[in-house]
Write a structure and sequence with these properties.
Layout lengths: L7 H9 L7 H15 L12 E4 L1 H17 L10 E5 L26 H8 L3 E6 L33 H8 L5 E5 L6 H7 L2 E4 L20 E5 L2 H11 L29 E5 L9 H16 L3 E5 L7 H16 L17 H12 L2 H13 L5 H22 L5 E5 L15 H5 L6 H6 L3 E9 L2 E9 L4 H13 L13
Parallel strand pairs: 2-3, 2-4, 7-8, 7-9
Antiparallel strand pairs: 1-3, 4-6, 5-6, 5-10, 9-11, 10-11
């Protein structure tokens, strides 16, 4: 039995069967073997760069503890033995949490994020902290202050970002599932590029307490897994109200797992024409077209729709997000948080610290955000962007009076070559053109594998009404059952 091929459900069945088929320590060791193989920087022909911190000792200790609990017949958590990666923007008590930045290179939080506490209570085995673009700012996985993450399907390609390490680690078999965050597509886009499943819940569904903020009104914790069912298991655990998060909403969490097998034949699916425009690669268009045809065979009704304000979404996003970045990153000044290049003159401390320890993208967004919030430009830029946000929310609300779900490509392209767009920020930003509208409107969405173009994975995005993750997961699961794309494994070619 290949332990690293098991789903979460199969893992539970094997660990908790009357005659145990394997132990938690065997599972942990199997994953750590793969993880070390692909995270060895000396083996550049197989180096993925998905993890910043590997927690081998604590992972093995946790596995041994779980084996003892199971042997005694003690009650165990709902995700017992699950080998998990945690994006390095979630605070982990006593464990270095860098957010992919040198300014937090030695930061050990005094507490853990709520989602981390919840998965730990469910008895997962945390294998390590996954690599990410600095402060979750990036679409390619190249903005980490430590090293770029590589796409397991082709190590010369980007994995997407900013949850680059989480997506690459799941695709490479280094962990069974991973936590990520999604501010403008940072779970869904890397999931699409790496051929795995990525779920971004409704804003307010998952606690943001302990999540190092990039853009607080848009950031949302999410999950990356190999299958829709595995994603549902993990989302079930981390979703729910948290009094410690002022943006958390006290809405009842449905039984995501129990509703996966409900029928989909009465659903009405909208195909928004604005998501199929200029810039889409022919191979992506063909894969998505075939996926929609498969979905139609499930008995759903397909309807073409229009979202007129979508062409303005990306421009609005890159005004709103930098504005919040400039405020959230103000605390990293050499005096309050993180590393410091302290000088006698206060201004020099600020300038040297931020100049030395923050990367190019972080500096770019701080400057953009400070500009659009400055006197004389606030009305011209920020207020107009907020007006566009309202228009986008209105467009979605109006369309969801007619349809249950929207189906689009996750990204207009497949993974591009490492280094090919680093000198062109606009080209990088355009990689998120199909995902940012979802965050602007606070909606839930999922990316599932739907084929290949030029030998690289293509993602299909399903967008749902607020709080309708269960419906979204149900259709994604139904599609997954009639296709094999989620079972494909990467080649690690270069």
């Amino acid at each position: 039995m290949e332990l690293t091929n098991l789903s979460i459900k199969q893992l539970q069945e094997g660990l908790l069967a009357e005659k145990r088929q394997f132990s938690a320590i065997e599972v942990a060791e199997s994953y750590l073997e793969i993880l070390h193989r692909h995270e060895n920087k000396k083996k550049t022909n197989e180096f993925v760069g998905a993890f910043i911190t590997i927690l081998e000792d604590s992972a093995l200790a946790k596995a041994k503890e779980l084996d003892k609990k199971i042997e005694r017949g003690d009650k165990v958590g709902s995700l017992v033995g699950l080998p998990l990666g945690v994006k390095d923007v979630f605070a982990t008590q006593g464990i270095i949490t860098t957010a992919g930045s040198k300014i937090l290179e030695n930061y050990k939080p005094p507490y853990s994020a709520t989602v981390v506490e919840r998965v730990e209570s469910a008895d997962v085995i945390i294998l390590g902290k996954t690599n990410c673009d600095e402060f979750a700012m990036g679409t390619s996985g190249e903005n980490s202050a430590y090293y770029s993450t590589h796409n397991p399907w082709d190590l010369s390609r980007v994995p997407g970002g900013s949850s680059s390490g989480s997506a690459a680690a799941v695709a490479a078999g280094e962990c069974l599932a991973a936590l990520g965050t999604d501010t403008g597509g940072s779970v869904r886009q890397p999931a699409a590029f790496c051929g795995v499943v990525g779920v971004k819940p409704t804003y307010g569904r998952v606690s943001r307490y302990g999540l190092i903020a990039m853009a607080s009104s848009l950031d949302q914790g999410g999950v990356i897994a190999r299958s829709v069912e595995d994603a549902a298991y993990l989302l079930q655990t981390i979703a729910g109200y948290d009094a410690k998060d002022a943006t958390s909403v006290d809405n009842k969490v449905p039984d995501y797992i129990g509703e996966l097998n409900k029928p989909v034949k009465d659903l009405v699916i909208g195909i928004p024409r604005e998501f199929f425009g200029e810039g889409m690669e022919p191979g992506v268009a063909e894969a998505v077209k075939q996926a929609i045809a498969e979905i139609e065979k499930l008995g759903v009704k397909i309807k073409e729709v229009s979202l007129p304000s979508m062409p303005y979404a990306l421009a609005a996003y890159y005004i709103l997000t930098p504005a919040e970045v400039s405020a959230n990153l103000a605390r990293y000044d050499g005096m309050r948080y993180g590393e410091s290049a302290r000088k006698d003159i206060l201004y020099e401390t600020y300038a040297r610290t931020r100049g030395q320890f923050l990367g190019a993208e972080a500096k770019r967004r701080i400057m953009l955000g400070t500009y659009v919030l400055s006197a004389g430009y606030y009305e011209a830029y920020y207020q107009k962007a907020k007006s566009v946000q309202l228009a986008i929310k209105h467009d979605f609300a109006k369309i969801f009076e007619q349809v249950d779900l929207l189906v689009t490509p996750t990204s207009p392209t497949v993974a591009f070559t490492l280094g090919s767009k680093v000198d062109d920020p606009l080209a990088l930003y355009l990689a998120d053109i199909n995902t940012v509208p979802v965050n602007i409107a606070g909606l839930p969405a999922i990316s599932v594998p739907c084929g290949f173009a030029a030998g690289l994975p293509v993602g299909l995005q399903l967008i749902a009404k607020p709080w309708a993750e269960a419906t979204m997961l149900r259709l994604a699961y139904a599609y997954e059952q009639v296709t094999e794309w989620h079972n494909k494994k990467p080649s690690f070619k270069k």
